[in-house]
Amino acid sequence: MNEVWNLEPIYKGFDDPAFARDYEALKALVEKLKTFSGELEGMEPLAGLTRGIALSEELTDLVNKLAEYASLRQSADTRDQEAGSQMGRIMALYSDTAAPLAVFSQWASSLENLQELVAGDENLRDYAYYFENVKKSSRYLLPGMGEEIMARMELSGGSAWADLHSYITSTLPVKYRDKTINLSAVRNLAYDDDAQVRKDAYEAELAAYPAIRDSAAFALNSIKMETISDCKLRGYTSPLDRTLENSHMEKKTLTAMLEAMDEYLPKFWQYLKAKGKALGHENGLPWYDLFAPMGKASTKFTTEDARDYLVKLFSGFDQELADMVAKAFDEAWIDFYPRDGKVGGAFCAGVECLGESRILTNFDGLFTDVVTLAHELGHAFHNQCIRSHRPLNHDYSMPVAETASTFNECVVMAAAIAGAKDKQEQLALIESQLQDATQIICDIYSRYRFETMVFANREQDFMHADTLCGFMEEAQKASYGDGLDPKYLHPYMWVCKGHYYGPTFYNFPYAFGGLFARGLYAQYQQEGEAFVPKYKKLLYTTTVASVEDTAKVAGIDLGDKNFWRSALQTIADQIDLFCQLIGE
């Protein structure tokens, strides 16, 4: 089995004649768009809409293919200078489309009978929701050359700062004991069986950050100030308002979810204190033991083991999903192992030109790594479920983006717990799942609190590293309560996590996805096989409906706090079982 992904089906390399042809085609298309935008005012409405959609579809296909290849190359090795250079060229050229696309959006939004025109034309009907959002978002478009100027400035602004952060964290040397390793490798040691290894790794990680913390602080401040300025220019009331608009999600949904999470935080603190006590700590759980394994589930997995395990498991849920999982392993969709220069964490990227996905992980052979693979393969399955949509209907919003991935985790963990050989294995699996649940509730809530503080302060103040560390600790104390030992927090999580280095509130969708998926899984447990077609339809709907309307496919009202409570209660029940297993 290949250890790295195969990108050659996209391009053989940057010297591939196909890459050059597509880049030239993109250049020509940019000129066509400029010409088209200048002719719009004199065009018949239906002809203008049809031509605009055709050009937009062609643009989406070309840019996705070119940029995805460069991005994947860069993620696999941030030191790949050619990938960085080519990505810069592609995005600079793409920025030239901002103005003509804005002209098209404004023109389409000005048509009084837009809805009727779209509904009455077979070619446009698929884009009813797309045009609904075009009309809704047109009020936030900048006049004149504003969109093109902002797109060009962003290349050397927020996007460049994010690239800097990715580079400095992926190349940061960490002195651990008698050797130097990378950040991903030292963070993986948080899952080690040896308590001293975990503590030493935590201390080594924290000791490494001062070398890059000032650079990271400048990056974070610059990105968030750009976001604040952009929101003011466009007329958004706040960065959170913009995130909700872009997520096609109502504020009442977020409020209901956060209020339910607040109610259940003490239950998570109970779990953390119980785990801390079981590990010999008296003042709550220290950060370095958050991921300490408990019980006995020491099976190490090879990538072949992981493939066989997941294919067999998902065959019991849906054969289409199982076949896709097998294909991902067999046809080199996955880049498995950590290495210098490779970005940390894990992600899945849709490669629309192939109708496939590519997955990056930092696999270390633990069961948690198998769960991570299942998570990313859930994203790939989501991509597969929307593949039949037309090009402009391939983007799902951030909140629903975590649905299929977390649902996959639920399937894996439920099967593993049910098949546990003894009490110790059951404990290990339940505790592993509670680790993940604590991440999407306590940790994500701490990130939400941190981002709220950053946005609230950035307009008046530049926040140096000490200030950001203080905000991080304050957010962690509020979210983890007395469950964590206050002497052992993680003040540098804002440096570690790339999710902060974007223009939006990126983090709360993980809590949404985690809880939404648990609610869906509870339905699956009640309905069995009859649920599967409904689930696929829900995933299919995510790109052509709001978050709230998507949930209605499964009969769920997201504004009802009781739905979120029911999902949280499934975790609370596991916490009770965990405490019972360890005798608390």
TrEMBL record:
<dbReference type="InterPro" id="IPR013647">
    <property type="entry name" value="OligopepF_N_dom"/>
</dbReference>
<dbReference type="Pfam" id="PF08439">
    <property type="entry name" value="Peptidase_M3_N"/>
</dbReference>
<dbReference type="GO" id="GO:0006508">
    <property type="term" value="P:proteolysis"/>
</dbReference>
<keyword id="KW-0479">Metal-binding</keyword>
<keyword id="KW-0645">Protease</keyword>
<feature type="domain" description="Oligopeptidase F N-terminal">
    <location>
        <begin position="112"/>
        <end position="171"/>
    </location>
</feature>
<dbReference type="GO" id="GO:0004181">
    <property type="term" value="F:metallocarboxypeptidase activity"/>
</dbReference>
<dbReference type="GO" id="GO:0004222">
    <property type="term" value="F:metalloendopeptidase activity"/>
</dbReference>
<dbReference type="GO" id="GO:0046872">
    <property type="term" value="F:metal ion binding"/>
</dbReference>
<dbReference type="InterPro" id="IPR034006">
    <property type="entry name" value="M3B_PepF_2"/>
</dbReference>
<comment type="similarity">
    <text>Belongs to the peptidase M3 family.</text>
</comment>
<dbReference type="Pfam" id="PF01432">
    <property type="entry name" value="Peptidase_M3"/>
</dbReference>
<keyword id="KW-0862">Zinc</keyword>
<dbReference type="InterPro" id="IPR001333">
    <property type="entry name" value="Peptidase_M32_Taq"/>
</dbReference>
<dbReference type="InterPro" id="IPR042088">
    <property type="entry name" value="OligoPept_F_C"/>
</dbReference>
<feature type="domain" description="Peptidase M3A/M3B catalytic">
    <location>
        <begin position="189"/>
        <end position="563"/>
    </location>
</feature>
<keyword id="KW-0482">Metalloprotease</keyword>
<keyword id="KW-0378">Hydrolase</keyword>
<dbReference type="InterPro" id="IPR001567">
    <property type="entry name" value="Pept_M3A_M3B_dom"/>
</dbReference>
<protein>
    <submittedName>
        <fullName>M3 family oligoendopeptidase</fullName>
    </submittedName>
</protein>
